# Entry
Amino acid sequence: MYAIFKKDIHQFFSSITGYVAIILFLLANGLFLFVFPETNLLDAGYANLDGLFELAPMIFLLLIPAITMRSLADEFRSGTMELLSTKPLTWWQIVWGKYWACLLIVVIALIPTVVYYIAMSQLAATNNALDGGSILGSYIGLLLLGGVFTATGIWASSLTGNAVVAFLVAIFTCFILYNGFDALSRVAVFSGGADYYLKMAGIRYHYDSISRGVVDSRDIIYFLSLTGLMLYLTKISLERKIWQG
# Structure
């Protein structure tokens, strides 16, 4: 597993694509949070990072599929997946190696955003300090969200040898999981009880809950369960492709 993890990290940063993806993520955050007037944190009148945690999931919808799209698709395209299947590795070791490599890259992209916290802390008045507990909860929520999106992206990459197709499937699936259930709960036909359960089935409900600074074990279990489900589907997809191949 460590060999796969190491290979994927090296492969990602050996091309300019990896650096561009991270730079664009940070650039988009910087522009929205400190330049564009509608979302500028400096115009809010009080110190907070709410804009970051509202914006980051939308940027994740593009960033994480870009990170994961080649993780397994390139293995199928180049024919190395068959070679991997003959090595003394279990399917779970392959899946976990790919997953941790991609998730580490997501974490690396997030680390520089701590600068926003430092900057806002310095700009805040003494009686208007940042709520550290709420921000920590929001970062935990963002990491859990990144974990689900990463697992979903790897699953999408296991379906095809075309990285572009994997990218598009991952974006669509992540969007449906994040926003689809919330949107569906607002349909009039589901009002009166079913709307609440539909909303709970989606990622956004649990992410918003953690982002308020309340780290509920039920939300953590939800994220971990969904991540585990997507990784299990990835394993099934890999086994099926090798058997059919």
The chain is about 75% helix and 0% strand.
